[in-house]
Amino acid sequence: MPLGFKRFVLRYYRVMPYPSLPHLSLWKQRLGRVPEWVWERSELETLVLADNNLSEVSGQIGSLKRLRMLDLGHNELTSVPDSLGGLAGLTDFLYLHDNRLTALPSSLARLTKLRYLNIGENAFEVLPECISDMVSLIELRASGNRLASLPDSIERLARLRELHLRNNKLTSLLE
Questions:
Q1: Domain range spanning residue 37?
Q2: Is the pTM here over 0.85, yes or no?
Q3: Phi, psi dihedral angles at 119 (to 5 degrees)
Q4: Which of 10, 79, 87, 112 is deepest in the core (most CB within 10 A)?
């Protein structure tokens, strides 16, 4: 391989560490912060940012309009950006498991095509109301929180086939 070509390749990968593919996994990279170049990857359909000690995610995530799958699990998030609700293409899964979340933005109610949501192992005391508007949910995992009851609005999830609620503080289910 000619030396000039090697320099070009090294320079290219320094600017854009990953080629333009629709799937990007930065799992367990100890990032601490999401690199800015990730938000420029408008072709992304899958983004895995799990297990990176993230305490926040930029609102720029809303620019990834083609995302179908997003994994923000196993981090230190206390909130997720409101712009997440603008990801109408998010259909396959949203994984927020094992963070420090106590609430979700109401904008997530616009994720009406989402089929799988995992909010387990967080600090939810009430199931966020926005979840009841995610009418395409087939599976909802909310185990390991502090839920004492379920809202009546959960009945709107007519397609729900799996509801995982173990290790909560439930005293009753729907009446």
A1: 20-164
A2: yes
A3: -120, 20
A4: 87
